[in-house]
Amino acid sequence: MKRVKYLGLLLGAMTFLAACQPADLQSTTTETETSTQTSAPTESEEISVGSSEQEAGSSAQQGFSLPVIYQDVIGNYQASLAQPEAINPEQVSTQLFLVHQPEIYAGAFYSLYDFNQDGVEDLIIALKKSDSYVLIDLYTLYGGGDLLRLVDSFRHIGPEIGEEAILRPLQDGSYLYEVAGQSKLYQYDEHIPGLGPVPEIEAESPVFDLNSLTWIQIEAQ
């Protein structure tokens, strides 16, 4: 009788353990799956992060909305940066060579600004130094949208606009031309068309701060 009683108790214990075991295993499996799902990013989260980074990069590289004719000018500068030996001074300032002095210049840049407030934005091209911009080329549009290179008023009478012959835009829309220790005022004249000398005045306008403009670097292509 005792042996039968012991066998009954043993069978009951085994039945109890068999009933409990699947629940324990199921609980452990569920916890493992939950942990894995929590630690691994979902596909939608990865796409969202990637999209944000792309938008930020695009925003940082966004430039001006240039007229097509200005885009052609920038294209000439890009090509000349890639092949400096092929610079055409009728299209690109030879001062562009100076970008190959990285200890002095940080590159060539362009910006847009309507200096004389005539409703037409001028295209300014400059070399960047550590704390300033040196203007080397200047364009505007006239008539029905024709391209006009304003530095042509000086290219054939002395050094190219740059370090030796400095063209400084002034706040009243005129320009101060400085070369060999002498200076002269110029302003845009649509009848030339171009920059023409103006009579000397007692007090000239302050110099326009080129650092206040938004500049975009010109990259070689």
Show the helix and strand layout.
Layout: H1 2-39, H2 43-61, H3 68-82, E1 108-113, E2 122-128, E3 133-142, E4 146-149, H4 152-155, E5 165-169, E6 175-179, E7 182-189, E8 194-197, E9 216-217
Antiparallel strand pairs: 1-2, 1-9, 2-3, 3-4, 5-6, 6-7, 7-8
Signal peptide: 1-18
Keywords: Signal
Protein name: Colicin lysis protein
Structure write-up:
- The chain has 221 residues and is an alpha+beta fold.
- The protein has 2 domains: 2-61; 68-217, no CATH class.
- Helices cover 34% and strands 23% of the residues.
- It has helices at residues 2-39, 43-61, 68-82, 152-155; strands at residues 108-113, 122-128, 133-142, 146-149, 165-169, 175-179, 182-189, 194-197, 216-217.
- The strands form 2 sheets. A 5-stranded antiparallel sheet has the order 4-3-2-1-9, covered by helices on one side. A 4-stranded antiparallel sheet has the order 5-6-7-8, with no helix packed on it.
- It is globular, with a radius of gyration of 36 Å.
- The relative contact order is 0.11.
